[in-house]
What does this fold into?
Amino acid sequence: MRILCYHGFAIGDEHKFHPKLFIHPDTFRKRLFWLRAHGYPVLRLEEALAGLDGDPLPSCATVITIDDGFYSTCRIARPILAGFSFPATVYVASYYCLKPNPVFSLAVRYLFWRAPDRPDDLQDLRRALMPANTPCEPQDRAQLMDGLIRFGEEACDEDQRADLIRRLGALLGVDSAALWSSRALSLMDAQELLSMTEAGFDLQLHTHRHRTPRQEAEMRREITDNRAVLEPIVRKALRHFCYPSGDWSDALWPWLAASGIASATTCDPGFNDTNTPRFRLLRFLDGENISQIEFEAELTGFNQILRKISGIVRRRPAGES
It folds into this structure.
């Protein structure tokens, strides 16, 4: 059983800014055309998992999943998927569903990307955006960008982060207001999530703050807080989980089980079968950075064969031919 993983869908130029995270609608539509043309049955997650547990599973069974819950999932992916009558599971990180702002770290990176050739004085930018005692001595724009994100996430509340985005845009000469009007880097709100579930999409868990703590109490709180936002909307118990950024460890599995989780998806490629641990389901991360031939090689199993050959070669003792 194959699981495809998507994130955002380009409203504007996001697929050029972050092609691994965002896919152009035409590219996404081309993927779905290929699945339909080649007879790949797209199943609901629950149906596919039941197949792994012994129910009949059709050949080339495929599941479509979408991470994070970007607004573009509702605006762009939803009508495209509906046109093919394909189901999908959307793993929602719920913090920004409650906030009318773009995702802070993405917004900062996007604004710097939009002004690549501006000859800014890094220290002037730092002084304009952060207090003098902030531990950040940038040697290049990447260091300043990382320092600003760290400062915003650790020392600011949500309103202050929104103000930082606006001030950064003004200093870089980029229209930050477009991030609010287009909602290209924002998540769906409660009403949009409700419309998704009413349209038949399966909303599931992705932590509240999009992080994977290594302390049990913190990890279980992420799931509890995530459920507290989503379950009143979907009106059912949520049992399936996606590791944020593919950050997983088998040490987390007992905590997931204790939290009532039945399955968890990674960002590790490969096919799933009856022997695949349900807390380590494999997925292919598709995006604008993946060519059509790479997509087809993954779906047909050619890449899986190459991974197995590579694994055999790596395990072969030195000197053995």
Q: What stands out?
A: Residues 104-182 form one domain. The first helix runs from residue 14 to 17. The mean pLDDT is 94. The chain has two domains: 2-98+186-310, 104-182.
